[in-house]
């Protein structure tokens, strides 16, 4: 409770709470889903059901729990997979927008060799998330750069890469807004990927001749709609600083307890889609998503007043 909140406001809130509880009991929804504080919100980010803040008992299953951590005094941020910050969760398209560390490989002007590269990995094995192959592109910036994207070392089967070159260190062929292998390279990733690591090829590329112009190379899997190449990314640390060292990444999530809609519909006890909904097969990995039928709005994973309601009578339900 905020300290400045007046007694009158507190009374209104209490009355509203009672109203909500009675609504909830009447609708037969789990009480925890609405009555608990900060169940579906963290640091201004909506955490809609089936998601919920960890330990609040608000998520459909542990897979949909989100950590709500105090990152500095009074500042809360949502995280999944321990350290991946969540910016937004979308129910309709089954996506989550998160932050992904930008990997880098820099020339050390003093030792006159490449510093050990900063190579990031992301482990979403066993979660409801997959790296979105429709929204993201593996993005590499540099003038003599080869970076790989791969799944788990030793057990994985996937490896791809991107090469970016400025021939003879000539930056004049690099063009703002185009990413075609000159100073910038982008490539698609495989579908159903739940692990990713970055590896820079450092040994075989002689970068000593170009460090003055392009001291650092970068590699990151990121939302391609959030990226526009600038030649300034080659000559300065602007790419890294623009994004604060982290670029937006899109994850696809789904209800993964069944492989498809057809399989899920065989058991209506565990079927996640509630009234006035239809089912969509996951497009990235096994599983399915629920959407409200045309003309209905609300949360397709909830029964009752916050579930899918005829549009004209449910203007606020889309908040859930
Ligand atoms: C958030 O809190 C969880 C649970 O205490 C912890 O495991 C995780 O490492 C924390 N993450 C960050 C980024 O602080
Ligand atoms: C990735 O996470 C899974 C599940 O938590 C774990 O079994 C596996 O060992 C992890 N892999 C790596 C390389 O950390
Ligand atoms: C590309 O745009 C940046 C600013 O965004 C500018 O500094 C740079 O000179 C431009 N490069 C070219 C080749 O036009
Ligand atoms: C790397 O390039 C520099 C100048 O471009 C050259 O002097 C040097 O011999 C090269 N080193 C290797 C190992 O090829
Ligand atoms: C690298 O060091 C040389 C002198 O050794 C200096 O002239 C140059 O400005 C330095 N470059 C960078 C990018 O720091
Ligand atoms: C990324 O794109 C989203 C929407 O597509 C936009 O809201 C956001 O401001 C963009 N962020 C950056 C850093 O470009
Ligand atoms: C990128 O930005 C992050 C956060 O500001 C910083 O910690 C990191 O050192 C930067 N990396 C490079 C290569 O500049
Ligand atoms: C969903 O996937 C299953 C299995 O791959 C397939 O048989 C079915 O036709 C798909 N259903 C829809 C609605 O696309
Ligand atoms: C249907 O799902 C419920 C809840 O997950 C489970 O307890 C039950 O065993 C399932 N029934 C069948 C026939 O698989």
UniProtKB/TrEMBL annotation:
Membrane topology term: Single-pass membrane protein
Positions of the Wall-associated receptor kinase galacturonan-binding domain: 39-98
UniProt GO MF annotations: polysaccharide binding
Keyword Signal: yes
Lineage per the UniProt record: Eukaryota, Viridiplantae, Streptophyta, Embryophyta, Tracheophyta
UniProt protein name: Wall-associated receptor kinase galacturonan-binding domain-containing protein
Ranges in coiled-coil conformation: none
Pfam families for this protein: GUB_WAK_bind (PF13947)
GO CC list: membrane
Provenance organism: Leersia perrieri
InterPro entries: WAK_GUB
Record-linked PANTHER family: OSJNBA0016N04.9 PROTEIN
Statement: the UniProt record of this protein carries the keyword Zinc: no
Main localization of the protein described in the UniProt heading: membrane
Keywords assigned by UniProt, alphabetized: Signal
Subcellular location: Membrane
Residues spanning the signal sequence: 1-26
């Amino acid at each position: 409770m905020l300290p400045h909140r007046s007694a009158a406001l507190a009374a209104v809130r209490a009355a509203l709470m009672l109203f909500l509880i009675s609504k909830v009991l009447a609708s037969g929804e789990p009480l925890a889903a609405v009555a608990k504080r900060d169940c579906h919100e963290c640091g201004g980010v909506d955490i809609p059901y089936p998601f919920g803040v960890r330990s609040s008992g608000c998520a459909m299953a542990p897979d949909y729990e989100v950590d709500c951590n105090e990152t500095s005094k009074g500042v809360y941020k949502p995280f999944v997979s321990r350290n991946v910050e969540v910016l937004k969760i979308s129910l309709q398209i089954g996506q989550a927008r998160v932050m992904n560390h930008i990997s880098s490989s820099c020339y050390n002007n003093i030792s006159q060799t490449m510093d050990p590269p900063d190579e990031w990995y992301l482990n979403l094995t066993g979660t409801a998330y997959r790296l979105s192959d429709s929204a993201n592109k593996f993005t590499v910036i540099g003038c003599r750069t080869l970076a790989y994207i791969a799944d788990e070392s030793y057990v994985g089967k996937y490896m791809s890469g991107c090469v970016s070159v400025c021939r003879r260190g000539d930056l004049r062929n690099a063009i703002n807004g185009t990413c075609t292998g000159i100073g910038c390279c982008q490539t698609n990733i495989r579908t159903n990927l739940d692990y990713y690591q970055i590896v820079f090829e450092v040994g075989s590329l002689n970068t000593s001749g170009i460090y003055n112009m392009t001291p650092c190379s970068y590699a990151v899997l990121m939302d391609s709609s959030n990226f526009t190449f600038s030649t300034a990314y080659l000559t300065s640390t602007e790419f890294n600083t623009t994004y604060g060292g982290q670029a937006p990444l899109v994850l696809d999530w789904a209800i993964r307890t069944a492989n498809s809609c057809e399989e899920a519909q065989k058991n209506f006890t565990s079927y996640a889609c509630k009234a006035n909904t239809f089912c969509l097969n996951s497009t990235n990995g096994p599983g399915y998503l629920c959407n409200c039928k045309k003309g209905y709005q609300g949360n397709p994973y909830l029964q009752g007043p916050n579930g899918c309601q005829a549009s004209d009578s449910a203007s606020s339900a889309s908040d859930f």
